[in-house]
Every structure is written in C-alpha cells, then in structure tokens.
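Example 3.2
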Amino acid sequence: MIRIRVLNIKKGVGRSAESERPRFVAVLSCALAMSLAPLGALAQDKAAVLLPGSINDQSWNAQGYAGVVSLKEKGWDVAYSENVQPADMAQALQDYARKGYTLIIGHTGRFLSPMQLVGVKFPKTTFIVGSGNAGSGKNVASIDFDNTQFGYLIGVMAARMSKTGKIGSVNGLEGLPNVVAQVGAYRKGAKSVNPDIQVKVIYVQDMEDAAAAKEAALSLIAWGADYLSGKLNAGQLGIIQAAKEKGIHANGRSVEDTAIAPDTVLTNIVEKWGDMYAAAGDEAKTGTLGGKFELYGLNSKGCTGAELLYAKDKELNPAIPQDVVDEIQAVKKKFASGELKISVTKDDARGGI
C-alpha cells in the first residue's frame, strides 16, 4: 500500500521540495494518485512521478519531488506516489499507464527493469528512469547527472582536507552503475592529489537507514578517517551525525545537511532533478527523448545535472583554505572544457580499502 499526497502549487512560483507542505489524502494502491493539475489541463500532458521513499527525507526523494514541482510549473498534470517498493514497481507503472499518463518517471535506477517489461505494452507512453544507465526500445529513457565528475571533485577536496591520510565513504546499492561512478571517482579524485591516501568504503543494506549509516561512519572514524562522503537517501543523516559528533568533516546531499552541522559539512552534491525532469519532459512532448540515455554534467549545455552547494548562495564552506578552493575550481573548469574525463571500474568502487 502506498500513501498518496496532494498539494497545491501556485503556477510560476518555484519552491524547494522541503518547503512544500503535502496534505495527506488517502492510503491507496500503487495505482491510484490524485491529480495536481489545474482544471482544463490536457490529457496528453499527464505525468506521474514514482518515488522509492519519503519526499521529506531531505535527500534523494526530496530531490525527486522537485521534479513534481518543475513539471507542474511547465503545465503538466502531475501525480506522484511515495514509498514505492521494488515488488510494487511494475504494477504501479502499469496502473498509471492505463490511466492515461503519457510521461511516467521512476526516481531510482531500480525502475529500469520494470520499465523495460512494462514499456513494450504501452508504446505511446514515455517512461523515464531517474538515475538509470540505459535506454530501452523506443520509449524507455534513462537520465542522470555525471556522478564521476562530482565524486571526483569531492575526492580531491577530501584528500586535501584530510590530516590523517585516511578518508571514508558510506554507500548503498553496491554495484549500481551510478554508485560505482560516484564512489569510484571519489577514490580516483583523492588519489589524484595524494597517491598515498587511504580510502575505505563501506556499503550498507538500506539507503534509508540512518542508524546503520551512522554505525558504519563511526567505524570509519575509529579506523582513522577524518573525512566522510556517501551516497545515501535518508541514511545520509547518519553520516552527518557521526561526523558532527566526532569533529570531522563530511559532505551531504542537500543544503539542509549544512543546517544540521554547518561546521562539519564542507559542501553538498545537490542534484538538480527538477531541471533534469523538466528538460526530459520537454523532449518527451516533442517525441525526441525516445530510448536514449541522457547524462548531464559540467560539460553540458544548459543543465549541469548537479552542483556543489554549501548554502543557497555559497558553493563551499568558508573554512576551506583558498588554495584548496582554487584547485577545486581548476578541476571543474577541466571537466567543463572536456579536458578532463574520468572512467571508473567496479574495482575502483570496491568495498574496503
């Protein structure tokens, strides 16, 4: 059973996912959601966004909810479902497609397989996998930001800020392509500026489990790590809490993480899913999205897919020395120009040291 929420959004007014105040409507099956459209919206402009967790997690699902807001502002009739579990994904996709939703977004790479199965049954519906790594057929597309670029930048910063020569990372979904990309690039970025640095990676079972993430983070700190990164959902809070308690540095996934521990957090990888889904929605309307895999990065025109943000008007914590800031900016310019390109393997993202 999935909790369905509905809210009113004033057209033309952008708000963060956290600033909205969803109103509980009902507990229904995965299939059923309330429309967010104004009266008179065109049926062919109906979009649905399926999220694996709560939109209030201040992380992954909150960023996915930003896509709901962006699509609404572009005139789509939008519905969304929270806490869609893997076993329910295929059925939820089919139910939305049967109800006439022509753009259906699954906000996790785990939607790829279900969409490949369901997509062939609904050729007039465009399916988008958020954080997927491949398109399929003529109507299943994947989009993501370039995890290698941002993982590499964090690795450079972590290595430069470390005093112990040991840094750590706590993650979920071991082996998922975008996790491999970010974690592997984090290790490579750190090694690029300090070949002798030790990087230890721990994988946890649940992206939403802050307690398990905190336990893993504390074990890394006990090992000697004085910087922690990670790619979790609600579990990211556990990393921030552990780092704050032990007086070391970390990065988060939203500016709300900075608010929790402003002296601990050096920056956040803020994923711009609202922008990415809005751009993909435009392509879907024109029929140009197809079965493509779209990757947004610092070298992309328009949307970069993500950005480093310490606060809404500040990229990095002021405590970072200027020479480290300059080095980070130089690496960003190399990515933007195409001079620097990073490829990673599963071994680069391996658990352990």
